[in-house]
């Protein structure tokens, strides 16, 4: 680290320290009511106590400070619950007070927090999207309808492995698993395969998903020090927007293609076997204010990120 960089970092830390001290003085009357917790260091608070395995660190800290404790992560005060009894009390009897959540900086990429049920505050739109997800995406009828396609995709994976073993071909386990997962998901939503085992058609989609999942999973200084949000010091949002836009373009082209097919069929609402996209487009056609195109795209983005970024 050269002297210029060192001086720059020192100035930032000094600035944050002054802000933190002033803020702590203003909130001193409120912090007295916080649960017990480890004493925070200036500026950084208890961040370093989380370590590389936060779940283990929090479990260890709870043995010292109890099942309900407070930690200061940067300038953010966090309450940690590690008791089933207290968690039940919060989730069952105080669920409305704790339903909304703070939005991490990564949740604001491409204005995702304005359309996604994951980050929307509890309200009419959140309830509407939650109802749509429950009734159409994850209903028993919809999940049962996907049993046969899921079995077929697993059989294709086994056939691919068997064929490679007979022909003494190497198998890229990661790519084969991703191709299977992608086809299970794309058949559930779009009734089509988005990838093949012997081609790299899914490469762009896979790269974008993996890159975005990696960016979202990285610790972001702006989450611990909200004053830094406008500066994006690690460049995570700038990089994430590139991959998020790429994913939205891919999903958008699929949605637009389906809309054109439905328009040419002159049927309007789909009347045959419904996949998830048809069901969502039916709702959009009936009442666009209930479910807009942006709502559909962000819903598909969440599903893709969740299922395809699983290890």
UniProtKB/TrEMBL annotation:
Keyword field contains Cytoplasm: no
UniProt keyword annotations, A-Z: Iron, Membrane, Metal-binding, Transmembrane, Transmembrane helix
Pfam families recorded: p450
SUPFAM superfamilies (alphabetical): Cytochrome P450 (SSF48264)
GO molecular function: heme binding; iron ion binding; monooxygenase activity; oxidoreductase activity, acting on paired donors, with incorporation or reduction of molecular oxygen
The protein's name: Cytochrome P450
Transmembrane segments: 6-24
Domain of life: Eukaryota
Family stated for the protein in its record: Belongs to the cytochrome P450 family.
